[in-house]
Amino acid sequence: MTSRDTAESVLVVGAGAMGTQIAAVFARAGHRVTVCDVTPDALGRSRTEATTRLTRLGEKGAMTAAEAASSIERLAWTTDLEAAATAAGFVIEAATERLELKQDIFGRLGRHTPSTTILATNSSTIPSSRIAEASGRPDRVCNVHFFNPALVMEAVEVVPNPETSDETIATVLALIKGIGKSAVTLSIEVPGFVANRLMTAVNDEAIRLYSQGVATPADIDLAARLALGHPLGPFALMDLVGLDVIYLMHQATYEMTGDPADLPPEALNDLYRAGRLGRKSGRGWFDYTS
Questions:
Q1: Catalytic residue numbers?
Q2: Prediction pTM value
Q3: Cis omega (within 30 of 0) for bond into 149
Q4: Which of 13, 15, 143, 201 has the fewest C-beta atoms under 10 angstroms from its C-beta?
Q5: Residue 45 included in any domain
Q6: pLDDT mean across residues, the chain
Q7: Domain of 253, in residue numbers
């Protein structure tokens, strides 16, 4: 069974950075992909970003120019979720990390997609068990968590909820293999899954060292790269992911655990409130405006 057999038509809900790259990954693997968002401007930016990234892959020799052009042709954009849902064989939601928003999206997807369609969330912290009931088909819901940048990163975390069927997981694993990724399969749900729990521990310690005046973000990143072999230091990585995403991950985890240790560090709070969200806003821990 190929990935295209598993789900010929893919719907990505959310036209942000992750949704756009996830859509490009599936289009590159041969799927017809529709990206849905409530904001036309977001869809316009998504179209430009996906086109640019796929074109560059062709220019760099990662695929032929003809393959890049075909991948771009398989992409479509819409604000009409209900209409797009009716033809979707697989859906992945990549909206903002807000529980109520995701529950609303999954309720609408449950009403308008075919009963056989698998509904996945790309959420990095919110387990699908908190979303699945809204869909009316919790056995066909799970987390399928891509990493940024999705076109480059090989790993995808696959996380069942207690009601996810074995058939659903088997289908998702075949789909992930078919798009050229490697699945990290969890046995049970835990907030933050595996990679983000490891990443959050490193990030929080880096922020703590900076807040205590031990070293600057640049020097902490230098230590991570040169001494630990990380391709990016924690501060540069947070800026790439987006400090709003990091902030909301902390908040979502705290809402699930009630542990004050899971709240965002104060230095992160300050940047979030100031609108310094990393590369996307031009400034985060570092200044990218120049």
A1: 124, 145, 157, 196
A2: 0.84
A3: yes
A4: 201
A5: yes
A6: 94
A7: 195-273
